[in-house]
């Protein structure tokens, strides 16, 4: 299609764009995709391309349960990585706003240690993952930009992996590679090529879309279920509040969370807590406590058992369209993370307790009306809040006044994962 035909086809996608991004973003997203078409023509001298999108994600339930083979509830959001892409011979050329990405040759799909933590590693890894699973690959050229906030726990890298996988699926496999397969390929790329030992939560939520619950009991055969809930007509806003507290120098503290849980599991001859019977844990609590390094390990195990059991209740509340019960469970999840998992404040930095402050302010505004909890890894970064639209302006003002203008990001749950628009 020529440029005018592409833009006419884009206009025909307004209902879907509204579904993906929300009514208030319709014009902005039409303009954004129109600009991608212009940028593609400028970069490659033609408009022989298609338009693709892959969302970021938010964790809703199952805080620090995935590394213990537990259950999680996550959702795709209306922040995404978008691209105009078309076929190219022998290589992937990817222009992404804010990044300098070198071309990746299809003739070399080996791991390059020097590419660790780069976009090239993710592209090469996704290509290799497609080949290993028996799918077709080919070169492509793309221009892209992303609205996924970095460092906010929305998974910008997973969105990029799913975007590349979605492009390959549609350009060379007639769109027949499933969302779950794309997620697994993205995880492979991140683990083996990018060098980050992530679980499957991020990629699966980005790729499948809407609310999705994942059971990691068998990591080789995870159970995934999309939860059909129309969040966009619920009169609720999903807010992520960036407290602007740096994650730097917290790696050791993050590592202690799975390590201490595994200490408890090891007492029962297990690798992870999912393999331990909660009833037996409580029955033998005194002897377990005598063997582990500290009581925090015990409390973190209690968090896991309660949080893992809470996820199916959250899923059922959504299926029942019972937002009141869902909010109660979200708040319970947040309280468990604060009291038992202890990932809201860092013991090494008691002066700055921004997450705790944000949660206290959220409770002050939303108590009895919405829900609030720590988001993602914790210790610094973001909190999550479900805010009735009638309280949204007030909530935003309170958060922006405390943490700075623009700290409160208003999102919605996106009903689809990785997609081709035209």
TrEMBL record:
GO terms for biological process: galactose metabolic process. GO terms for cellular component: cytosol. The keyword Nucleotide-binding applies. GO terms for molecular function: ATP binding; galactokinase activity. Residues 130-209 form the GHMP kinase N-terminal domain. InterPro entries: Galactokinase, GalKase_N, GHMP_kinase_C_sf, GHMP_kinase_N_dom, Mevalonate/galactokinase, Ribosomal_Su5_D2-typ_SF, Ribsml_uS5_D2-typ_fold_subgr. The keyword Transferase applies. Keywords: ATP-binding, Kinase, Nucleotide-binding, Transferase. Residues 39-86 form the Galactokinase N-terminal domain. Belongs to the GHMP kinase family. GalK subfamily. This is Galactokinase. It comes from Holdemania filiformis.
